[in-house]
Design brief:
This protein starts with a helix and ends in a 7-residue tail after the last strand. The protein has a single domain, classed as Lipocalin, CATH 2.40.128.520. The longest helix has 17 residues, at 3-19. An 8-stranded antiparallel barrel has the order 1-2-3-4-5-6-7-8. A hairpin with a 2-residue loop joins strand 1 (34-40) and strand 2. The chain is elongated, with a radius of gyration of 20 Å. 22% of the residues are buried. The chain is built from 1 helix and 8 strands, in the order αββββββββ. It has one helix spanning 3-19; strands at 34-40, 43-52, 58-65, 89-96, 102-109, 114-123, 128-137, 144-151.
Length: 158
C-alpha cells in the first residue's frame, strides 16, 4: 500500500475509536441501581427498585404492582400472609463480583412463596444497561430460570 492509503486508514481508525464511548464495555457495581420493570406473558407486572443497602449489598423492593393491594398470600410464614406485597424487599444480599456479575443473592417469588438463590447481569456483556438478566435457581445455576427485566423509562441509563 502506498503512504496515502495507510495514512487514510490510520486516520479512519482513529476517528472510529474516538467515537466509541470509553466505558462501552465497562460495568460498574452501581449500574444495576434503579427501577426495573418485570413482565409476565408480555404484560408489565411490577416495578422493582434496586438500591445499595446499608450492608453494602444490593437489594430490591416492589415499588409498583398491577394489583397494589395484593397480599403475600403464599408466604410460608402464616403471619406474613396478610402483608401487602407493595414495599416488600424481594431481592437481597447481592454482591458485585466484577465482570458484570452480581452474585450470592436471593430472590423471593411471591407467586410461589419460595426463596431462591440468584444472580444478575446486564445484557450483552454489559453493553445494554437497560436490560437486566436475573437468574433464580435451587442449588446450582443450572437448575433455574432466567427472567429479563427492563429499566423503567423514568430512570433509563444514559
Amino acid at each position: 500500500m502506498n503512504r496515502i492509503a495507510i495514512s487514510f486508514l490510520t486516520a479512519l481508525l482513529l476517528c472510529l475509536a474516538s467515537a466509541m464511548p470509553a466505558n462501552a464495555g465497562t460495568v460498574a457495581a452501581e449500574d444495576v441501581v434503579g427501577k426495573w420493570q418485570t413482565f409476565k406473558d408480555g404484560r408489565h407486572r411490577s416495578t422493582i427498585e434496586i438500591y445499595r443497602s446499608e450492608k453494602n449489598t444490593y437489594e430490591g423492593r416492589i415499588v409498583w404492582g398491577e394489583h397494589p393491594g395484593l397480599l403475600d398470600a403464599k408466604n410460608p410464614d402464616p403471619a406474613k400472609r396478610s402483608q401487602v406485597l407493595l414495599g416488600q424487599v424481594i431481592l437481597r444480599d447481592f454482591i458485585y463480583g466484577g465482570e458484570n456479575k452480581w452474585k450470592s443473592g436471593h430472590i423471593y417469588d411471591p407467586d410461589s412463596g419460595h426463596d431462591y438463590s440468584a444472580s444478575m447481569k446486564l445484557a450483552e456483556e454489559g453493553a445494554d444497561r437497560n436490560t437486566l438478566l436475573l437468574r433464580g435457581f435451587v442449588g446450582i445455576s443450572l437448575f433455574g430460570r432466567t427472567e429479563t427485566w427492563k429499566r423503567d423509562g423514568a430512570s433509563a441509563a444514559k
